[in-house]
Design goal:
single chain, 203 residues, alpha+beta, seven-stranded mixed beta sheet, elongated
Length: 203
């Protein structure tokens, strides 16, 4: 075998040895950790007595899925609850209108356009917070406060639920009593807000 062939075989052996070494190193590396999927937020509507309410101008009943950015409006004598899973619960009182925005981190923003709303952050599974706001005011949940509630006033501020009449279309005393008597999550949240006796404290 001449020198040229020997050199070619040596070069080929070196290349093959290097290739096998790379395969061995790659095989020995730990597999990359799978990406954790983001927790999707699903908002489900429940209305009192399965009565329809208006979502984005359309009549909608219990069981409907609410998408972020929706405008939700309740008629007289009908309240609505939006269950956002781990993010919390939003309760719209009768004769009220809100805009609801939320994301996968559990951030929930409720703009009160008319009437009254109550919110409850249920768990600490998601890092986000709940905010209720108007053009003139904004309140957020924090580690010490998981419940918020307020009614839109004529001046654009957010007053306590007991000030609903000032907005010309919130809860009457009889309606508040009826909701509390009905029990459930709504009664608990309303009880927390009503006993505060004033505007929610700013965040």
């Amino acid at each position: 075998m001449d020198t040229r062939k020997k050199n070619a075989l040596k070069a080929l052996a070196v290349i093959l040895a290097f290739a096998f070494a790379q395969v061995y190193v790659q095989a020995g590396l730990p597999a990359p950790a799978p990406a954790m999927p983001q927790r999707a937020i699903t908002a489900r509507l429940v209305t009192r007595g399965n009565a329809p309410i208006t979502v984005n101008g359309n009549s909608t009943a219990t069981g409907a899925t609410i998408l972020t950015g929706a405008t939700i409006e309740t008629p007289d004598q009908v309240s609505g609850t939006i269950d956002l899973g781990d993010a919390g619960v939003v309760e719209i009182q009768p004769n009220s209108k809100i805009q609801l925005d939320f994301d996968e981190n559990g951030n929930v923003r409720v703009k009160v356009l008319r009437g009254c709303v109550v919110t409850n952050k249920k768990t600490n599974v998601l890092p986000g917070e709940i905010e209720i706001y108007s053009d003139q005011a904004s309140y957020k949940t924090d580690k010490k406060r998981r419940n918020l509630g307020g009614c839109l006033l004529l001046n654009g501020q957010l007053g306590s639920l007991t000030g609903a009449g000032a907005a010309g279309g919130g809860l009457t005393g009889a309606e508040i009593g009826g909701i509390v008597a009905a029990g459930g999550a709504g009664a608990v949240i309303l009880g927390v807000v009503l006993t505060r006796g004033g505007n929610p404290s700013p965040h």
